[in-house]
Amino acid sequence: MVSKARGKDRLWSHTREPLKQALLKKILGSEELSQEACMAFIAVLKYMGDYPSKRTRSVNELTDQIFEGALKAEPLKDEVYVQILKQLTDNHIRYSEERGWELLWLCTGLFPPSNILLPHVQHFLQSRKHSPLALDCLQRLQKALRNGSRKYPPHLVEVEAIQHKTTQIFHKVYFPDDTDEAFEVESSTKAKDFCQNIAARLLLKSSEGFSLFVKIADKVISVPENDFFFDFVRHLTDWIKKARPVKDGIVPSLTYQVFFMKKLWTTTVPGKDPMADSIFHYYQELPKYLRGYHKCTREEVLQLGALIYRVKFEEDKSYFPSIPKLLRELVPQDLIRQISPDDWKRSIVAYFNKHAGKSKEEAKLAFLKLIFKWPTFGSAFFEVKQTTEPNFPEILLIAINKYGVSLIDPRTKDILTTHPFTKISNWSSGNTYFHITIGNLVRGSKLLCETSLGYKMDDLLTSYISQMLTAMSKQRGSRSGK
């Protein structure tokens, strides 16, 4: 398994010399892999302070050089493990040894060794229980065996954490009601586990339909549930960095925020999950209502205005005189000019007085129950420019919701047509467009839209359709099981 390049003892102990060839026999047959192994080892030496190195441009520059090759080529995974274990054997330089343990900690969070090497790695860790990271590495190894290998090298957050001697990484997550909480995220945490942890902490009945979103630069992107959380963020930051030029040799810092929100509203019924209504559904639906995306009657607008006031100020009537100034927060923006500010105030106050004693939470639920009756409840809305349908306005409002894709006249708010998911055969998106095909290729029709939010429409459509297909296959399964 191991090449006999030099004396066995020297081969298996700490060195400050670069390797002339890979440590494992299985790699020696490939010159390319062998060369990559030697380059990775130089990065290991540099990271551990055993080899002269220029100041790195970023915290994860060396860890990228160590792990990138192994994540692309399976045989290099064992090679990297063996290189790190070698550098931790008979290492009497304290700084170097500490840095070596950091690398082993990162490695056990990325991928497990092969079945042949696994017992050796486990034995190494068990025989060094005195080391502060040994137990944690063993646990990380178990999780890597259970969850499989990551796709990308460690995220900056992981590297910084272990360099600061913290093995627990806490991540702030923001919610639509303007609150946030910190959650522990591990190297092996997948988005689905993260969602379930959040749902449990917030006492939600279920995490179904919820998703994590990462806000970075000017984009908000949903994290696929089976992705490792740090893989996704790493991939995203790399992708955005490529699109942004490096100025004066300085890599732009890419800070990101993590949001947790309801994404798919298929099974959402107000009143069924009070915590979800209170923290998510109300605060996610309110801005869409105020932007004027729904078709509603004056009566409904007055009722809703009184309920929004109650959520804001509860029973406090001292803000009544300020209602004319607060109209943008109480009434859909396109309706504000329909009557005078004083008329709005009088009518909203009259509706407010009808519901004396209603609590803030009851007002949120009443708001949701009213808008739940509308076919556009729980929609994601997109303003687009279309050129393919002469009978429709050029500027269209597209709503994607549990019923499918609705095309709405932005002026009248009338739903012009709704394409159910079962009739949608194809879609594609780019930086400036979103295309969708309805029906089959022979008798189908195409809708071409200009929009900068094509990536969001594409993702939402994909998620709703895959949810529908999963539900259909479950139904078939339960029928055949009877």
Characteristics of this structure?
482 residues, alpha+beta, Ubiquitin-like (UB roll), Acyl-CoA Binding Protein, seven-stranded antiparallel beta sheet, five-stranded mixed beta sheet, 17 helices, 12 strands, 45% helix, elongated
Write down the overall geometry: elongated
Helix content: 40-55%
The appropriate CATH architecture of the largest domain is Alpha Horseshoe
Q: How many separate helices?
A: 17
Which structural class should the secondary elements be placed in? alpha+beta
GO molecular function: actin binding; ATP binding
Protein name: Unconventional myosin-VIIa
Domain FERM: 169-472
Family: Belongs to the TRAFAC class myosin-kinesin ATPase superfamily. Myosin family.
Secondary-structure blueprint of this entry?
Elements: H1 8-11, H2 25-28, H3 31-47, H4 61-72, H5 75-88, H6 94-110, H7 118-126, H8 134-147, H9 156-163, E1 170-174, E2 180-184, H10 191-201, E3 210-216, E4 219-222, H11 229-243, E5 256-262, H12 274-290, H13 298-313, H14 323-326, H15 341-354, H16 360-371, E6 380-386, E7 395-401, E8 404-408, E9 415-419, E10 424-429, E11 433-438, E12 445-450, H17 454-481
Parallel strand pairs: 1-5
Antiparallel strand pairs: 1-2, 3-4, 3-5, 6-7, 6-12, 7-8, 8-9, 10-11, 11-12
Written overview of the protein:
With 482 residues, this protein is α+β, with helices and mostly antiparallel strands. The protein folds into 4 domains: 8-163, Alpha Horseshoe (Serine Threonine Protein Phosphatase 5, Tetratricopeptide repeat), CATH 1.25.40.530; 170-244 and 251-262, Phosphatidylinositol 3-kinase Catalytic Subunit, Chain A, domain 1 (Ubiquitin-like (UB roll), Roll), CATH 3.10.20; 274-371, Acyl-CoA Binding Protein (Up-down Bundle), CATH 1.20.80; 380-481, Pleckstrin-homology domain (PH domain)/Phosphotyrosine-binding domain (PTB) (PH-domain like, Roll). Helices cover 45% and strands 15% of the residues. Strand 8 and strand 9 form a beta hairpin. The longest helix has 28 residues, at 454-481. Residues 2-6 have low confidence and may be disordered.
